[in-house]
Amino acid sequence: MEYEITHRPSYAQISLSLEPGESVRSEGGAMVSHTSGIDVETKAEGGLLKSLSRSVLGGESFFMNTFTASEPSTLRLAPALSGDVQHHELEDETLFVQSTSFLASDPAIDVDTKFGGGKTFFGGEGLFLLKLTGTGPAFISSYGAIDELTVSNGDPVVVDTGHIVAFEESLDFTVRKVGGLKSTLFSGEGLVCEFTGEGTVWTQTRSPDAFLSWLIPKLPSGNSSQ
Fold first, then answer.
1. What is the pTM of this model?
2. In this predicted structure, which of 55-69, 124-138, 177-191 has the lowest mean pLDDT?
3. Is 105 in a helix, a strand, or coil?
4. Burial status of residue 203 (CB atoms within 10 A of its CB: 0-12, 13-18, 19 or more)
5. Residue 81 and residue 83: Cα distance in Å, rounded?
6. Domains, the chain, ranges and CATH?
7. Comparing 158 with 188, which gets the higher pLDDT?
8. Residue 111: helix, strand or coil by DSSP?
9. How far are the Cα atoms of 143, 152, 187 from residue 184, in angstroms, in the given order?
10. DSSP states of 30-81 as a string?
């Protein structure tokens, strides 16, 4: 499977070149176009319970689409939000991804939800993480551009929860307030995630929650005068 990511970083789109017999699984609604010779199968991936947990808890579609080529074909995918797309080649490993950032992967990669308990994300910024496990290519998306941050022992990294895209399993994380109660309520930052250990965190330059906080007050109310 070969790929090309174009229109980066604001309106990224991925073009996948599939040989006969090759397949890719994507989030529902991600397809932009495809050439002839591609069969599409839509199903609740992993069964009813796993699909329900991804949908209700992980913020992903209940159904996923699997595209399989019967001849050399091209498939184009794009995320729902304007931003970038990034390729990760998993080798018998796990990558944690924020809800809404999963775009596509090899069907051999398991996509599940993981509850972080007391360590997880609160405040509408992702209570559950998506857990990508296995071997093969995976593609994640962002709102805005993607930055890569390296975490090393003795040098933790603090990230606003709304700006997290993905992180490696080797990292530990804790969620806490940005400061005291006043800072949490009025600074506009909400909660932050502190990563420790050794590994990589990928962040996005825009936050969907921050955008909604800006947009919603500007929308006309239902009882406004005509």
1. 0.81
2. 177-191
3. strand
4. buried
5. 6
6. 2-206 (3.60.160.10)
7. 158
8. strand
9. 23, 27, 6
10. -EEEE-SSEEEEEE-TT-HHHHHIIIIIT-S-SSEEEEEESSSEEEEE--SS
